[in-house]
Amino acid sequence: MRDAAAADHVEEPVHAAAPPSAPTPPAAGEWAIGIAFVLAALALVAWIGWTIARL
């Protein structure tokens, strides 16, 4: 009976904690999206300012 209970229980090996990895730099695509977003925001602000100035 004891052997059957021992066969059901499987010990998991204890792994050492992995060292924290350094943050990876953003990919080129992420830079492009960010720059496009900033340029779009600047264009929107410029358009709003130009529209208000015309009033």
Describe the structure.
The protein has 55 residues and is mostly helical. Helix content is 62%, strand content 0%. The protein contains two helices and no strands. The chain has helices at residues 2-8, 28-54. The longest helix is centred in the C-terminal third of the chain and has 27 residues, at 28-54. The radius of gyration is 29 Å and the shape is rod-shaped. The model has no long low-confidence stretch (mean pLDDT 81).
Q: What keyword list fits this structure?
A:
55 residues, 62% helix, mainly alpha, rod-shaped
Give a brief rundown of this model.
By secondary structure, the chain is mostly helical. The protein is 62% helix and 0% strand. The chain has helices spanning 2-8, 28-54.
Topology overview:
Blueprint: H1 2-8, H2 28-54
* Helical content (DSSP H or I, runs of 4+): 55-70%
Round the Cα radius of gyration to an integer and report it: 29 Å
Order of helices and strands: HH
Compute the average pLDDT: 81
Report the total helices. 2
State the low-pLDDT regions, or none: none
The total beta strand count reads 0
Q: What would you call the shape?
A: rod-shaped
**Largest sheet composition:** none
N-end to C-end Cα span: 91 Å
Strand content is under 5%
Secondary-structure class: mainly alpha
